[in-house]
What does this fold into?
Amino acid sequence: MSLTLEQVKRIAHLARIEISDDEALTTQGHLNGIFQLIEQMQAVDTRGVEPMAHAQDVSQRLREDTVTEGDRRSAYQAVAPDVEAGLYLVPKVIE
Amino acid sequence: MINASLKQLSQALAARQISSVELSTLFLDRIERLNPTLNAFVTVDREKSLLMARAADARIAAGTAGPLTGIPIAQKDIFCAEGWTTTCGSKMLANFVSPYDATVIHKMHAEAGLVSLGKTNMDEFAMGSSNETSFFGPVRNPWDSSRVPGGSSGGSAAAVAARLAPAATGTDTGGSIRQPAALCNLTGLKPTYGVVSRYGMIAFASSLDQAGPMAASAEDCALLLNTMVGFDERDSTSLDRPVEDYTAGLDKPLNGLRIGLPKEFFGEGCDAEVMAAVRAAIAEYEKLGATTVEVSLPNSHLSVPAYYVIAPAEASSNLSRFDGARYGYRAPDYANLEQMYEKTRAQGFGAEVKRRIMIGAYVLSHGYYDAYYLQAQRIRRLIADDFVAAFKQCDVIMGPTSPSTAFKLGEKAADPVQMYLSDIYTIAVNLAGLPGMSVPCGFVGGLPVGLQLIGNYFAEGQLLNVAHRYQQATDWHQRRAVIA
It folds into this structure.
């Protein structure tokens, strides 16, 4: 498998990372080298093997649907780039 | 005092031979003098540290101190610590002052009374094996300043090796505690997945990440591990298990211990002199009463390929939170929301982090998910099953931690694949979720060599015992780098 330059740019867009033409070219070389390493997996017959998502065979723990944390909104918003009246500000999305 | 063990420091504090303020000052002064060369710490805050030291002295005076109260420690900058800049080695978080404590930090500060000396340098978002991907520049290996300390916990390793701190925390997703421990002559332990809480530990690959201690000896690691473990309802994968005292079994004799030697770890691909040091360590274990048996991990050669699908897939999901909206860096100029995301992430992340996010985005995308992501998870199962089979024949598995000693700064930086292969012996342990250690076992050309110990699930106590007995019979772990 070999990624084309167009594919590299598409992946960068999917990952929401701006990429210049020069960077895309360098990235293409690196990613194709890494995928060459990854391709070794394709030679292995894994039919019937259950995918392992997790190191421990335990099921997700559930808890009561009750409030467990105090209100620390102002502390958490103090580290935000732009807030107003308790809201996070971003460029206008809906006209 | 600089070279004292945690036990000796604990005794000195309890006997009032030294106060925590005096001890902390000793290390803070050393950091001030030596860190400009080593770059092991990215944040030091003398006032904050001394405040903790004074509180520790008060606890000691009041008779409410624990065994490690007042002992200084270095914290990997992946752990959120309230009021401390927490960067994870990234421009993205260069100005992020954490509003809360990670569970590990809370346990060490509020419960154990340890004194944080500062936050240590690391590969950006723990992605690297040399500490060269850090936004804050590379760390130098105290044994040879032209060489890397390993990574991603490179700052923690260099700090302890240069005795800028008596001990440190690290995290290990594919070898990030064990490999730098090996390259800097330290003892490092990655616990079984789920034993130490991941809450407040900035996530790289959530099914693999695990925190652990890095120190001069197995005994020091056991004392530290006691303060780090425990069930945490804030971590959905934390395991609810009975509490153990990891120092309790350190002295057990090793008579009858069965050591498994995977033939795949003793073939090609490892430096011959490193291998000779590892074999000499195993011969020492035989003198201590252990026996060896050849075992096989037939799928271990697939661990690096499977890891570079699974870890980037999880990373691409975890790092989607860095969008410039809620915390961290935001690009100065953008015309709309999408541009804000794309420019923020282009400017805030370094090259290696971008590569891994992109690999992850690709292997999770429509049409490639089955061929890459699911295939990698199936291979992960095969790798874990290999260990289950091997542990039917042995109690502990041994081999090299790293295929070479510390390499030169810049030597592997241009080729990601060469860098990835430096974790060839450590990654399988994370995929299986097992505990692993690195223990100093010799030198090649003046550079340290690490012996890797791999245990069965929850065998941390046994690993520490096996390491401790070796350290009672050898002095490799007591050798110190000579620093100008």
